[in-house]
Amino acid sequence: MGGGAVACGASASDSNYKSVRNNANSKWWLDAGLRKNVSHCVGLCGTLFFNGYDGSLFNGLQTIDAWQNFFGHPKGNLLGLMNSAALFPGLISPYFAELIANRFGRRWAVWIGVLINIAGAVVNSAAINLGMYIAGRVLMGVGISMGLTIAPTLLQEIAHPRYRAQIGSMYTCIYYIAAVISAGVCLRTRHIEGNAAWRIPCYLQLVGPGVTLAMTFTMPESPRWLVRHGASDEALQILGKYHANGDINDPLVRLEYEEIMENLRADEVNSETKYADYFLPNNRPRLFLLVVIAIGTNWVGNGIISYYLSPILSTIGIRSTEQQAGLNLGLQIWNLILSTSAALSVDRVGRRPLWLTSTIGMFFSFIVVMGLSGAYDTQGQQKAVGLAVVPFLFVFFGFYDLAWTPLSNMYSVEILPYNLRTKGQAIYNIVQGSANAVNQWVNPIILEAIHWRYYAVYIGILAFYCVIIYLRFPETKGLTIEEIAIIFDGDRAKGISRAAHVIRDEPHVVGDDHSIQSEHADDISIKQNGMAGKTNGNVTASERA
């Protein structure tokens, strides 16, 4: 059972909710409703577990002699094709995921993606030749991209508002839990005789989708999706059940419900949303951020290290496959610790400081990696110089984990209004899949041709991102996902904050039609002819009030 009506300020993640009374225990693990809510959110994170396991797995497989022998020691173009085969489906499958999510519900898009993941993992693991192996990876790519398109959106829309930021930022950190397991399994099985050495790690790819199915089987549909499709009664019941232990008159539930209603009323002005809507003046900044973040997730230097650590280590004299496998495991553990710590601080530190510190730190550490790699190659391949590169690979990823791991998915979801959210995530994943496919195909080819000189490309990209983040990334710390719309939509979205102010400060009950009844109910409604406008910069305290 939940605790009494308490203000869980210590656990708050969205400052708008800190002072609102809520029939939930301040410690989620002691509250029945919140335990279910967190369990469903963790289940959705399983969609990224599969992605993280696969990312580390391809590194680990390259250290297993049986895998190398079975596929004829692939290099260059073939190695790039084998890796990027799982990425090319991301060019189109997010579009179909968005259609399914908007028509049939968020849950169905996630579940269909999970089932495709399972089919792909079985085909890939049982491969009897190169073609079957690649076909399995293509299927897995379809499932992965569908999950990555919809799961972060659904997670943000069902999570309790006081834990939304922490859970949302932890979503990407699940990647490294999977990566650690994958690296550890490959290190353990590499000594097994025969093809079981690489098939066992491949079959364990089934863990991620299996966990997601089990933990999301009883998951509710997104309340925002239900309201949009005329099921407001069910939406309110879900909010009450999972956020206030069944109390639909709970003040926090009423606040959430009315903010959702106000946000969707505003969206009704342009209810038939199209991808072309992203080119409207107030949405162009959103589109810019989506594209920049999506490309950056694998083009800021991490892509080449994540997937091609083995050949990188070979260029600095570390050629023992056992040493390479051990370093891969150590790097994944390091990533897990750093990214989890950063995820827990996103609301305390803020988004912009993390983005800037992360990218600037990566820029300088990659310069050191390039300098030491060049010195090793041009000055007699001294072992000490080669070994000096290793700690700076860890430093580089430490900075990457400050922002790019916890924020990339969460930030790209929270800047989007409901009516554009799944389309935005489809755009994000299509761009990310395209950029990553190109990145993973060309990396081994260019690395084999020019070695450490290739790092200069990533140093230039990092310099560009430092400038872009400083100039164009707004701060969203402490805002609800409805309030963030004010940054981009200005006066059109301010009615949502006015509604929240009335709900917090006025006595009210939920009426028969589930609308909020108060002395100033008229102040809550937004006149449709006043929903135009845009603003630049951050939201001020007066605007939020």
Summarize this structure as a short list of keywords or feature phrases:
disordered N terminus; Growth Hormone, Chain: A; 545 residues; mainly alpha; single chain; 25 helices; two-stranded antiparallel sheet
In the sheet with the most strands, the strands line up as: 1-2
Backbone structural class: mainly alpha
Quote the beta fraction. Answer: under 5%
CATH superfamily of the largest domain: MFS general substrate transporter like domains
Number of domains: 2
Give the CATH level 1 class of the largest domain.
Mainly Alpha
Mean pLDDT: 82
Q: Main β-sheet, in a few words?
A: 2 strands, antiparallel
Quickly give the CATH architecture of the largest domain.
Answer: Up-down Bundle
CATH topology label of the largest domain: Growth Hormone, Chain: A
Q: How many helices does DSSP assign?
A: 25
How many beta-strand segments?
2
Uncertain parts? 1-15, 502-545
H/E topology pattern? HHHHHHHHHHHHHHHHHHHHHHHEEHH
Helix content: 55-70%
Pfam families: Sugar_tr (PF00083)
Family: Belongs to the major facilitator superfamily. Sugar transporter (TC 2.A.1.1) family.
Main location: membrane
Transmembrane segments: 108-128, 134-155, 167-185, 287-309, 354-372, 384-403, 452-471
Descriptive report:
The structure is a single chain. This protein is an all-alpha fold and 545 residues long. The protein folds into two domains: 28-219 and 273-472, Growth Hormone, Chain: A, CATH 1.20.1250; 224-271 and 483-544, no CATH class. Helix content is 70%, strand content 1%. It has helices at residues 32-61, 65-70, 76-84, 93-104, 106-125, 130-158, 164-189, 196-203, 207-216, 223-228, 232-244, 251-267, 284-299, 302-307, 309-315, 321-343, 346-349, 351-378, 383-414, 418-450, 455-472, 485-489, 491-505, 521-524, 541-544; strands at residues 509-510, 516-517. The chain has a two-stranded antiparallel sheet with strand order 1-2. Strand 1 (509-510) and strand 2 form a beta hairpin. Helix 18 (351-378) runs antiparallel to helix 21. The longest helix is centred in the last third of the chain and has 33 residues, at 418-450. It is globular and about 70 Å long. Mean pLDDT is 82; it is low at 1-15 and 502-545.
